[in-house]
């Protein structure tokens, strides 16, 4: 694509020069002007060849050439408008990224790159032209994404509503093995008595989430109908449960602790022991603590590593505690004030080197010093636990569905606005160029 005035002038001069030397030849010509850019006949021809090649590969019938040509022209106009937007944003697709995209195209066609190049040649498409088509497509797509994202607003209530609908669909026919603890409230209980029972229920939930045995706590504290069975209700579908239980179970999976929640008779805690027919998502969280030493102009790599090695030996020998060293030495102020503790986190939140270390390090072992982009660390994994993330996964899926739905709607609206505000002309004299 180029400035259309310069293009027309260049073509005219080329026509004069060629006419003085040899017989007239058909030259590339401008078929459409789009703002300050032009679409050439060669652009249309190249796109037509690509469309025909793709259709043949998928055994897809095509409309008559007159209809297909207009469809291709419409697509090129919209692509040109988006490329103009991309130029304003400074979007550029480098060769490395382009090569990766083309390699992916070949992979999707189950071809090697040489095989793809041969296919293009058989269809009269030069590899250089194909590369530029792909580059333009990626560039236009990025411009569209940037503009449309700004127009999308997803409310938390929308996500919650759709997540509940998805959960209900997924839970048809699902069976749950559940256990229950009930802390009773006597009729006429005072506000102080209600608060006391509420606090007791919250404390039990804390113990359960730390790994306490549910059955033991049910035997000791529950006043529910299954207390003598360790609180276990066995296998049930949601429609077979007491309504107050069913209302609390949304998309939680195996091992989930639910509650405390209140009814007319007191406070309740549920545990999902197992499920049948429900796809659950579980992640491993790591409870770690670390000490960070950063290098600087006055502290070299070797010096930082040596400082941590000495600190590690002091901790191992019992001269100092991990918490004391973290508070006095660590350059991570957030964790240093807490004795180096990072709390329960999924390893994916950490940089790759730190992630690999906490995933592989045995519990209770203090690592040798290792380096990340932040500096030199020693780390200790204090515990690991599997945590149900089914509920979060359903909400993430609901958000993606809403985003894709709104993106498609807003993209169409944006493209229509873009075209409505553009200068588009098909010059009659363009057909006479050359």
Describe the structure in your own words:
The structure is a single chain. The chain has 434 residues and is α+β, with helices and mostly antiparallel strands. It has three domains: 4-151 and 415-432, Triger factor/SurA peptide-binding fold; 175-276, Roll (Chitinase A, domain 3), CATH 3.10.50; 282-388, Roll (Chitinase A, domain 3). It is 51% helix and 18% strand. The protein has 15 helices and eleven strands. The strands form three sheets. A four-stranded antiparallel β-sheet has the order 4-3-6-5, with helices on one face. Strand 5 and strand 6 (266-276) form a beta hairpin. Helix 4 crosses helix 6 (127-149) and helix 6 crosses helix 15 (390-420). The radius of gyration is 33 Å and the shape is extended.
């Amino acid at each position: 694509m180029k400035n259309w005035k310069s293009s027309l002038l260049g073509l005219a001069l080329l026509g004069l020069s060629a006419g003085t030397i040899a017989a007239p030849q058909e030259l590339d010509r401008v078929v459409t002007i789009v703002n300050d850019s032009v679409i050439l006949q060669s652009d249309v021809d190249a796109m037509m060849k690509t469309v025909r090649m793709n259709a043949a590969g998928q055994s897809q019938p095509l409309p008559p050439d007159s209809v297909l040509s207009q469809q291709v022209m419409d697509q090129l106009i919209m692509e040109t408008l988006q490329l103009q937007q991309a130029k304003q944003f400074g979007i550029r697709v480098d060769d490395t990224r382009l090569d990766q995209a083309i390699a992916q195209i070949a992979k999707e066609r189950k071809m090697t790159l040489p095989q793809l190049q041969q296919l293009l040649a058989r269809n009269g498409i030069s590899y250089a032209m194909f590369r530029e088509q792909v580059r333009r497509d990626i560039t236009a797509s990025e411009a569209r994404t940037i503009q449309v994202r700004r127009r999308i607003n997803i409310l938390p209530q929308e996500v919650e509503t759709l997540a509940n609908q998805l959960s209900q669909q997924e839970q048809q026919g699902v069976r749950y093995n559940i256990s229950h603890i009930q802390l009773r409230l006597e009729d006429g209980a005072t506000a102080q008595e209600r608060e006391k029972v509420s606090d007791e229920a919250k404390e039990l939930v804390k113990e359960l989430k730390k790994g306490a045995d549910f059955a033991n706590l049910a035997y000791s504290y529950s006043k529910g109908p299954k207390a003598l069975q360790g609180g276990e209700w066995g296998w049930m579908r949601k429609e077979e449960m007491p309504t107050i239980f069913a209302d609390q179970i949304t998309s939680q999976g195996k091992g989930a602790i639910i509650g405390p929640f209140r009814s007319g008779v007191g406070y309740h805690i549920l545990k999902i022991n197992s499920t049948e027919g429900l796809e659950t998502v579980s992640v491993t969280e790591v409870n770690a603590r670390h000490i960070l030493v950063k290098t600087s102009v006055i502290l070299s790599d070797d010096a930082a590593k040596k400082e941590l090695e000495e600190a590690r030996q002091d901790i191992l020998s019992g001269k100092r505690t991990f918490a004391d060293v973290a508070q006095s030495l660590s350059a991570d102020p957030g964790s240093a004030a807490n004795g180096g503790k990072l709390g329960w986190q999924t390893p994916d939140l950490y940089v790759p080197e730190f992630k690999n270390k906490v995933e592989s390090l045995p519990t209770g072992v203090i690592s040798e010093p290792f380096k990340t982009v932040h500096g030199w660390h020693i780390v200790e994994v204090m515990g690991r636990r599997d945590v149900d993330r089914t509920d979060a996964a359903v909400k993430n899926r609901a958000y993606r569905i809403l985003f894709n739905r709104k993106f498609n709607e807003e993209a169409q609206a944006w493209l229509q606005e873009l075209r409505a505000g553009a200068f588009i002309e098909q010059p009659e004299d363009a057909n006479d160029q050359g």
